[in-house]
């Protein structure tokens, strides 16, 4: 039938019968003589038309090429507090707590801390040998600078951006959009210059997913086609893109998700025929086709570095875990099943520790799972009647309110934690763990149908940031492995850079810091004996306007902390807060935090 442009508003209102009454008021009189049977037939005919249209769209015969803004751009109201009972009993709670700088003997993972106290302990020799901070302390400091503002757009693609990924070493970023172009950016610095642009081939409607090889030398993308497409990163010619034919049994075929194995020798794919495919790059052939469900397979991936265990998520809300070592293609049986979502899975991300994954769903929730605790064997059959598949379509219907505040969990739900507060609409929105190197995987971040980047605290279930950045759905998100930067890919044609920026009301404090005035004597007396204030961050600056001066006498110590190009406010405190320093009048300390450096200049 070809591609037909459909407006979402027309689809949303398709079931509403609109009658235009005459201006003279004869509409009421006409209604008295209408045949009720004709009204029923007309309503039945219209409902039948809606059903046909939805089936055509689901089969891929009709593609939605134009979406207007008829969706709520506000975040949903979540009335219930997150239930932390199961989370606090799990191993991941203590693991993330320690990885983000809060030891087992510490209290709440949200308790306040002072960077100066950490420096004092390091200076006095308290802690590991060598005088450097351990990785968890670095993550603890880095988590003070979680992205909170949109800095700028790195590219406007003139079409919807569907996906974007960082290479594992963080040196490159790749994006794919509906204009069939793959853009590669230099991610070695925060400027993100575009270094090449590749015209993808055999693209039908849009590029749906893309992934890097583990070594960063290749990439694979998928679209509405019966093949995967692989190319080298440094080839710019369309002729260098190779087809990996999957040989499906279905004629109208689309691959919604792809994932490289951690060994780089295989590629997993999930398609609209309900099957999971594995392609062997060494033998150049398809080695696996597993019927997973009757519905679309929207998410696939590998659990850890071994590439033996992988998972799949489908439109029926069921997650299945597979073990390649004992998988029989003739009679495939999963190693385990996870039940708990009321609607389809849109994305699954692994913590890469062999135990935990998160899943994003059309039921407007993210769930954290422990793969050592599967749902009962009969759970899948028991919950089929409770799943809402087919009752609404997330591409144009309003989200059922019952999803935001469900009365109870599904029978057989073994999830560790559930996160709610974002919207999943229009497309397969991704949710991921934050990087281990800089955050200790303290956060879960996701795109949103409201155009926001949503960042959850894994340990509390609360939203710590909801950055309004786009005018349309944010479909994919990518956190840099070594910097506190997130790139968001949106249907408003933009890829935006999200970074940490100080509050606007801190600008005056920053100006007073650059040109300090000597405080009067009474001010110094009042300052003595006070506890050091909590760290606050000043506005983003390129360079210091001048050297920091010593604030009079009285044994005060004055700090300037520089984080890349961000200046943190100075602290004036009594020298009793630190142990005895050397007789030198000035000392310089440096803390290397991956690619960021904190410089602590002490004036005594």
Describe the structure.
- This protein has 604 residues and is an alpha+beta fold.
- It has three domains: 1-17 and 35-70, no CATH class; 104-137 and 504-603, no CATH class; 160-433, YVTN repeat-like/Quinoprotein amine dehydrogenase (Methylamine Dehydrogenase, Chain H).
- It has eleven helices and 35 strands.
- It has a five-stranded antiparallel sheet with strand order 29-32-31-35-34, sandwiched between helices.
- Strand 3 and strand 4 form a beta hairpin.
- The termini are far apart.
Number of H- or I-type helical stretches: 11
Helical content, roughly? Answer: 10-25%
Shape: globular
Strand order of the largest sheet: 29-32-31-35-34
Q: What fold name goes in the CATH topology slot of the largest domain?
A: Methylamine Dehydrogenase, Chain H
Give a count of the beta strands, DSSP E runs of length 2 or more: 35
The CATH architecture of the largest domain comes to 7 Propeller
Question: What ranges have pLDDT less than 50 throughout 5 or more consecutive residues?
Answer: 1-34, 508-604
Protein name: Putative microtubule associated complex
WD repeats: 338-372
InterPro entries: DCAF, WD40/YVTN_repeat-like_dom_sf, WD40_repeat_dom_sf, WD40_rpt
Region (Disordered): 516-537
């Amino acid at each position: 039938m070809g591609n037909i442009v459909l407006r979402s508003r027309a689809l949303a209102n398709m079931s509403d019968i609109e009658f235009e009454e005459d201006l003279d008021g004869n509409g009421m009189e006409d209604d008295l003589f209408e045949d009720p049977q004709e009204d029923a037939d007309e309503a039945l005919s219209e409902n039948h038309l809606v059903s046909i249209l939805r089936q055509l769209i689901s089969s891929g015969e009709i593609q939605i090429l134009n979406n207007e803004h008829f969706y709520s751009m506000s975040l949903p109201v979540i009335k219930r507090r997150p239930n932390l009972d199961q989370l606090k009993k799990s191993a991941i709670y203590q693991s993330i707590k320690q990885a983000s700088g809060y030891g087992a003997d510490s209290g709440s993972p949200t308790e306040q801390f002072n960077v100066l106290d950490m420096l004092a302990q390091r200076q006095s020799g308290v802690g590991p040998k060598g005088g450097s901070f351990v990785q968890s302390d670095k993550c603890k400091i880095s988590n003070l600078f979680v992205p909170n503002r949109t800095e700028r757009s790195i590219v406007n693609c003139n079409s919807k951006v569907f996906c974007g990924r960082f290479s594992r070493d963080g040196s490159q970023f790749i994006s794919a959009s509906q204009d069939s172009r793959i853009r590669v950016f230099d991610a070695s610095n925060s400027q993100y210059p575009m270094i090449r642009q590749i015209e993808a081939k055999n693209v039908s409607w849009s590029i749906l997913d893309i992934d890097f090889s583990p070594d960063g030398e290749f990439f694979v993308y998928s679209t509405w086609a019966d093949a995967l497409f692989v190319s080298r990163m440094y080839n710019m010619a369309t002729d260098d893109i190779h087809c990996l034919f999957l040989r499906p049994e279905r004629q109208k075929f689309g691959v919604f998700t792809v994932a490289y194995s951690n060994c780089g020798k295989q590629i997993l794919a999930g398609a609209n025929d309900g099957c999971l495919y594995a392609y062997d790059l060494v033998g150049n052939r398809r080695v696996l086709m597993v019927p997973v469900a009757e519905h679309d397979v929207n998410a696939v991936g590998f659990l850890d570095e071994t590439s033996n265990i992988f998972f799949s998520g489908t439109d029926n809300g069921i997650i299945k875990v597979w073990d390649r070592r004992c998988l029989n293609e003739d009679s495939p049986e999963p190693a385990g099943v996870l039940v708990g979502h009321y609607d389809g899975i849109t994305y699954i991300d692994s913590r890469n520790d062999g135990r935990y994954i998160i899943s994003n769903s059309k039921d407007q929730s993210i769930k954290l799972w422990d793969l050592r605790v599967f749902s009962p064997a009969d759970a899948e059959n028991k919950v089929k009647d409770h799943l809402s598949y087919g009752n609404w379509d997330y591409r144009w219907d309003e989200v059922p309110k019952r999803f935001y505040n469900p009365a109870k969990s599904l029978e057989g739900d073994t999830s560790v934690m559930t996160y709610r507060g974002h919207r999943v609409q229009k497309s397969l929105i991704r949710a991921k763990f934050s990087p281990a190197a800089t955050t200790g995987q303290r956060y879960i971040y996701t795109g949103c149908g409201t155009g926001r980047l949503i960042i959850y605290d894994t340990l509390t279930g609360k939203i710590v940031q909801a950055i309004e950045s786009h005018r349309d759905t944010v479909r994919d998100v990518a956190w840099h492995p070594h910097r506190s930067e997130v790139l968001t890919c949106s249907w408003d044609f933009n890829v935006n850079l999200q970074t940490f920026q100080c509050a606007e009301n801190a600008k005056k404090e920053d100006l007073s810091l650059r040109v300090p005035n000597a405080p009067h004597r009474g001010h110094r007396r009042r300052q003595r004996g006070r506890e050091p204030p909590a760290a606050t961050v000043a506005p983003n600056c390129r360079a210091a306007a001048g050297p920091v001066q010593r604030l009079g006498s009285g044994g005060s110590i004055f700090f300037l902390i520089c984080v890349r190009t961000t200046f943190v406010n100075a602290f004036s405190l009594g020298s009793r807060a630190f142990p005895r320093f050397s007789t030198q009048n000035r000392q310089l300390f440096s803390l290397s935090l991956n690619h960021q450096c904190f410089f602590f200049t002490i004036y005594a």
